[in-house]
Amino acid sequence: MVSAPRASWRSSPPKALTARTSFSTRAVLLDLEPRVIHSILNSPYAKLYNPENIYLSEHGGGAGNNWASGFSQGEKIHEDIFDIIDREADGSDSLEGFVLCHSIAGGTGSGLGSYLLERLNDRYPKKLVQTYSVFPNQDEMSDVVVQPYNSLLTLKRLTQNADCVVSMRGQSGGFGRPPQTRETPTPCSSQDLAQRTEDQQSHTWWTKL
Prior knowledge:
CATH superfamily of the domain at 29-169: Tubulin/FtsZ, GTPase domain
Low-confidence stretches: 4-18, 172-184
Order of helices and strands: EHEHEHEHEHEH
CATH architecture of the domain at 29-169: 3-Layer(aba) Sandwich
CATH class of the domain at 29-169: Alpha Beta
Helix content: 25-40%
Radius of gyration: 18 Å
């Protein structure tokens, strides 16, 4: 979620914000299977996230790389997810919009992500929605045979419900660069992808107080 800094902060940062200040992100982590979120909770960054803002599907079976499965599960669980989102939105001083980070190739990021985009647009029609969407790398083979369908179905929802889409290419080879300008391809792990997404967000949202 994106909220504007308090008016008094814009002219001079509050003295309370020192190196010892502890911050908690206004983020909601959600997944239909526990592996990735558990890896975050077992990492040095676990304390950055409010445990009350983490949602994991009860059955934990994921969406099977299937857009339709992720979308249909969204219909069943959206109330629990929006209880978290609404609470964080109500706690914002000046809510300006939402940022969604997801992949469009698998089942959860594409299907559940599409469902949440539609619901966000209905629930907060005057708020901006920006996404950081990881697109599949068409230069490489994938074991997700329905990846093109997941991507196309998600692209429609991005077009209809997002105000800004930052497209990011996953997997390997000159992350985010067109094929003709790429240098020698190098492997891109999920950690690399997360770091580069974080860097891109920092460049987008960084402002001088």
